[in-house]
Amino acid sequence: QVQLTESEGGSVQTGGSMRLSCTVSNHPYSTVCITWFRQAPGKEREGVAAIGGDDSTFTIASVKGRFSVSRGTDRYTAHLDMNNLQPEDTAMYFCAFSGRVLNIMNIPPVNLFEAWGQGTQVTVSS
Predict the structure, then answer these.
(1) Among candidates 126, 124, 122, which has minimal Cα distance to 6?
(2) How does pLDDT run across 36-58, given as a tens digit for each residue?
(3) Using CB atoms within 10 A of its CB, is residue 117 exposed (0-12), middle (13-18) or buried (19+)?
């Protein structure tokens, strides 16, 4: 079955940086869309950034200029590079994949995702 392996998060100070990585395995697709979501305590889950099968990317307004998503060494790994982290970025971060999304113009609908990573905590302290 499809499996997503997500790197560990951790704790950083305000203004710091962190890279999260997500690798998709056991899938039939030649390329995949990988999207990062996050959920903070008391808040709904929100999409943060996505990379499409054609390597198009999208980030939400609140992280533009600070976060970027990119393809890894292989076609089935994506990196979320988070810079100038702020306390409001503190959340559980999840990656999700779809083999059905080629061009990214927004965070894809949740029902298009076929598998999810387990999530990792990112904590930004003042």
Answers:
(1) 122
(2) 999 999 999 999 999 999 999 99
(3) buried
